[in-house]
Design brief:
alpha/beta, four-stranded mixed sheet
Length: 147
């Protein structure tokens, strides 16, 4: 029996990957890089939401090495009337085992910004490559992904 790693490195671009193919992503139609939805009760909440988004740029997807904002994984930030943050996020694939790592990264990144946050994980819309920001595409191109 050949030696195989217990936890092989996930490559969403590999043939047979559970992630959407590059071709499928290019033709997804509905999904496009888009702004992050912000909900806040007042101007202070709006400013906090923008700080949350900036802080989330420090949360790196461990498989791809790109931040969750530029990957298009952060769909929304809601700041409630008590200043708590509710993040709406997705993953590159529903089978991704990294929710705990990303939530831990968010806790570190958001500690100076909000006293409390939670992540609501969603699968609609389904993430695909077209959701990556131009900056994210440049970062992926820099590490060898060409699409």
């Amino acid at each position: 029996m050949a030696d195989t790693p217990a936890h092989p490195q996930f490559d969403p671009f590999a043939p047979g990957s559970a992630a959407p193919s590059v071709e499928a992503s290019r033709h997804a139609g509905q999904a496009r890089p888009r702004g992050i939805t912000i909900k806040a009760p007042d101007e202070k909440g709006q400013k906090t939401a923008h700080k949350v988004i900036e802080a989330m740029k420090n949360v790196i997807d461990p498989e791809l090495g790109i931040d969750v904002v530029d990957l298009g994984l952060l769909y929304g930030v809601e700041i409630d009337d008590q200043g708590r943050a509710i993040l709406t996020m997705t993953l590159t694939t529903p089978a991704c085992p990294l929710t705990d790592l990303l939530e831990d990264g968010a806790a570190v990144a958001l500690a100076p910004v909000v006293d409390y946050f939670r992540v609501d994980w969603v699968w609609d819309p389904v993430w695909d490559l077209s959701m990556i920001t131009p900056q994210g595409r440049q970062m992926l191109n820099a590490i060898g992904y060409d699409f």
